[in-house]
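For the sake of transparency, this paper describes our internal protein records without simplification. Because each token names a local backbone shape, the row as a whole describes the fold. One such record is reproduced below, unchanged from the form in which we store it:
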Amino acid sequence: FMLLVCVAPFGVHAANAVFPSKPMRLIVGSPAGGGNDIVARILAGKLSETLGQQMIVDNRGGANGIIGMELAARAAPDGHTLYMGTAGHLSVNPVLYKKLPFDIERDFVPLMEVVNLPFLLYVHPSVPAKTLGELITHAKANPGKLAWSSSGDGGLPQLTGELLKIAAGINTRRIPYKGSAPAFNDLLAGQVHYCIEAVPIGLQHVRSGRLLALATTGSKRLPFLPEVPAMIESLPRLEVQNWYGMLLPAATPQPLVKRLYTEISKVMAIPEIRAKLEAQGTYPVGSTPIEFGAFRAAESLRWALVIKEAKIQAQ
């Protein structure tokens, strides 16, 4: 009995002391080039230095994060595999899909809300609209003609687009894609007329004039795009903040959860990293595992109401 009492704590400390003992994997449930991926790579690059082991970003896009999450759920709970996903992956999917190949409460432990970020409404210059009001007027004059792209079913880009249709009273066609990057690339190519997407994915194209940004979905205007109004200035109900969060496989030992939370928090506090994140229009949060768990669950309840109101069904 005494031997067990002595050995168990030592085992935990030993596991913690040699961690990480091999390269780490950050599974990202989005294709390369999306906002989630950009933020993951900013953090993974620095964490590779601070942890002394390479952190590899493993993009597993498709099915709105379900493919990547299933892979993460089955990974060894030894702290070497993390999952980073969007609000759509972590809070919408559990209330949108009747059956998932994992249970978010049973198969994962929360680590942290990494960043939050508003969306921008991006429009192709071929559309005769320079403001949100003009876009709504054009859409009403041409019902069913305008097409918009979004990532997979249940992503916040889709839900925000549906909210815009309800709030503005417009009839437009959604074209779904397997991720934000391909959805955005078709907007750039003029295959669709508009999309609602993360700031990091399209800011450079707004600055270069390839696309127009007509509105932000945040609570206020962005400091680096002061001329772009917030949607709530003309559509009072339309405020949406996306966020990216990290999970670990269930049964990951608490000392490793705490260690990873501490290490990622330190990296996010580095002025250079914080500046890189904010330059992408993403705002560092770094909530504790307990705070993030409660927040994620509350977001699920919120979006369940939107799904019901917009009559959205998983395809």
Remarks:
- The chain is about 45% helix and 20% strand.
- Residues 165 and 171 are 7 Å apart (CA to CA).
- Residues 289-310 form the longest helix (22 residues).
